[in-house]
């Protein structure tokens, strides 16, 4: 076969092939053009047979990814048959709102899975985590797997930061953007651990199962059994479940108690309870105190608040005190109670009508049988009196009147009696001038006359605790009405003297008076109460003149004391008051007592409106005020001199009654106040002197007789009080450790500076308040005085920036005994605080120990602090 024939056959075959392909392409183009024309026309409703059935419709497969998947890495490899992408070294994937940074990432396009792993060392340990960021939240894990279709994920050793805390779980499963389930997870709020300054948290809570629920407004953790670990050591604090809220709003939580021992009632849990917010304006706290010897105490408390209107709280203490062993003589059982109410109105709410309440009613022996250890630690057990007051005040825009209504209740624990005023109303008229000024500038006695007046209505009763609001109490109650009119005026005489005139008129009405007489059958004095409205009126006038004198004494140049300055304020005044004890007024009566002596008494004696004065008063009184200072040389002062106060005030006063038949001179009093050592040491003194000689019968210390012999000036009373607050700042300035020492420590020691010998340097701040009191009292007729002397110390010292010791004590120098002593220790453990308080002496010997977490996010859940809306940082 020739070569030309072969060439011919090849060319013929090629032409056929090309023609065939051209024909096929033309048919396809014509068919597609026909289909396009058919689909562009509107089909009739019954043209079912002319259309393609649904079974023949081509369904386009939905893409596995709903968004663009962006990847980058130092090394990228694709496996097309398996549809896999492998990213190595500095791998990053961005998909929708999620970003994954890891050492290794693999993407399975068939299964819609992404897998990420952190950087490993030679032994396979993860040394750099996978960082996943989604919706602004950052998560750290060792391994991470994410399904782009279901948006579910599984992470291993995941680190999730929520609010002030962090959760680390061995396995975490993300169901959706709102729900996470975790296995073997710990939670902590340790700031150093969260910021990775420390590899171990100072405390954590460990749970086998945790569910994290996240919403737009708040998030929360719900756990199964959970246990508290401190410095990786397990504690007995195990809760069957916990709900930890991550929200700025109030939320319910368990109140963690303190524990300790009291000598009289045994071991205790103090303050165990639960906190529950109620709506927007209320919250409820219920606490319990439990003691091993059988005592118990329940303490409910409700707070309320309406912003810019009012705030307050109700609280109570109800319990049973058990002391001793049942069956023995020392056994006793007492019930105690305390009811308290506090209400405060915002000043902006209504300036014309205000209401306030401070009610605190307790059983007579409440503080002697207290079951709330806080009353021991804050010294409330030393209270001898308790006061309660409810007040409402009404003011007027156009009327110069203020009306105040008050109900008060005062308890005296020493006597067991209580004073109740129910109610008391005072109508006060604002001060006004009696005469108008002619020139616009007031001058002279007439134009300066001012009038102060008002009416006071009181219902008063002194009763026993068991008689409160019973028939016996209402029978004792008496009503009194008083009116006072005070007029005063002043003017200047001879430029240097201030002349003052005044007058007082008192009017009173009462529903009860008394009648005294001697009963020869009973052989005793009888006081009889008469019911009926009776009153009295009294008046007095005063005139006084006052001026100020200055004196200066200068010393030689170069002397330590350069000058002595003395300011004196003398004043004299005359007081006149009639003898309202005269028979003409009828306010006083006489009776012969059991000894046969004629005894005068006031029919208003012991009453609610008081008794009018008896005896004619025409007394000249005087007062001399002094202020003494000196100037001394001082290198520390820029002027070269410094003022030192010798006496800030030194007052001497007394009076002489010209109308008195005997003992015209009054008791002389001297009062002084001064401060030393840059106003640190404050000294207050008072002295009272009787100018008349007092004589006693031989061998007797009582029944002294005050003679008319003038000039002996026996001390009837002397008191001196000293207080001196000492502190580390007084004895030296603060050291700037940042400039002096460059080296700082790690972890907690970053708060310390270290010297060249590696010793820690820090300020040891301390305070010490010293209080001393001495009182000498000698009543008229008693030779032997009563003395009281005590020294009190109150202070604190920071041993380190994290250790603090504080305490207080009082020593009675008369009985030579320690009165009240408390010692407290506190330790800042980064995330929580340890507090220990101890009262080693006195009636109550108690120690109290408490551990509280400081993080605000757990303040609600575990209630280390009561983050109710009564706190300053309330969100309402």
Task: Name its key features.
51 strands; lipopolysaccharide transport protein A fold; elongated; mainly beta
Please describe what this structure looks like.
With 876 residues, this protein is mostly beta strands. The chain has 8 helices and 51 strands. β4 (98-108) and β5 form a beta hairpin. The strands form 5 sheets. It has a 26-stranded antiparallel beta barrel. It has a 6-stranded antiparallel barrel with strand order 4-5-10-11-9-8. A 3-stranded antiparallel beta sheet has the order 43-44-45, with no helix packed on it. The longest helix is centred in the first third of the chain and has 38 residues, at 3-40. It is elongated. The model is unreliable at 1-11, 25-62 and 863-876 (pLDDT under 50). Among the domains are: 70-252, lipopolysaccharide transport protein A fold (Sandwich); 477-657, no CATH class; 667-828, no CATH class. The chain starts with a helix and ends in a 15-residue tail after the last helix.
